[in-house]
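User: Please predict the structure of the protein below. I'd like the answer in structure-token form so I can feed it into my own downstream comparison script.

Assistant: Understood. Taking the following sequence of 385 residues as input:
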Amino acid sequence: MRKTGHMTADQDPVQRAADDDMDLYDVVTWEPRSRLDYAATWLYNALGTGLRPGVLVVAALIIVAQFATATGLVFFDRPVVGAYVLLSVAPALAVAGYIWLADATGQEPIELLVATFVFGFLFAGFAAAINAMSSVVLFGSSDPMTGSTAVATSALFYFLVVGPVEEIVKWLAVRLYVFRSDEFDTVVDGAVYGAMAGLGFATVENAIYILREVMSVMQTAGGQQATEVAFQVAALRTLAGPGHVIYSAFAGYYLGLAKFNPDDAGPIVVKGLVTATLIHATYNTAVTNLKPVAEFVGVAQGVAFLVFVIAYDGVFLAVLGKKLRAYRAAYNHTGASAVAAHAATWDGDTLKPAVRRIADDGVGVDPEDYSAASSAPPAESTEES
């Protein structure tokens, strides 16, 4: 028999038709009754409670192992190297600060910003491990690749491995914690927290790159040369850091958009991750193959790198800034800013209908008109029941 008509997914047809006193346990309804039911409930709660701490523990162990392998005790022997690491993330911090200040709805709690930074810092270990294993598969042959083969292979590596993996782990740094918070209450919050996850990721990536080079030089040359190398690599990584913040801010923005559009959340999240991945992988591919372009143009590779990074990141930061300004304009134009201004003095349940009314009415809302209307008590309903 074919189904006819339209049925909602809230209840099974038997549930809708059955009497309240009919016992349909394990047929179309369920609640814990048997020992197996209670065991399943306990296991589900245990997994839900322990999953995120477990992931954090594993991530922390990976990061510790990477630092131990790459750096030894170099921080203690040469604290100036640690200063170079901190300086290398200063531009990325500035970009994250710009995105934070561009949030029209107010500044996010510092503790959540720090927590997201920590998640991004720790989750970088997952990306590094996956990238390393994938690199062995693609580039582990004894015969080095040259020419177009090398270009194509590196592009595949960036577009299919590095870009997706790194953007997904930064996205998870937001999704697994702060996304669940009541403070994540606007679309643009996604961009802010995405930027902080990118900042944490860039910090640990810069540190590992710098310290690996320092350790390599210290094994073959003197300590002074190692310090010089640390400065050179830090200068290079200074330009790489802002990109991570920008890419993950895009993915975070669309995560925020998905939170408030649950019917289309999946495609919206995918759009954000694909956007961040394409920007990221294109950057990596271009930088890897920048040398022949610089030689063709007749400029030093360092100059070409500097010009390219500033231009590339500048373009996408401008695109992101345009999205944030569009949100700010809508926030002010719809009167949502007036709603937020009264949030401290009115109960949330009173405000929600006003928010919906203002958003539904769209344009032409005068915040002063809303202020006057909201200062009066709600009128009693005169409708007959």
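That's the full token string. The chain has two domains: 50-333, 340-374.
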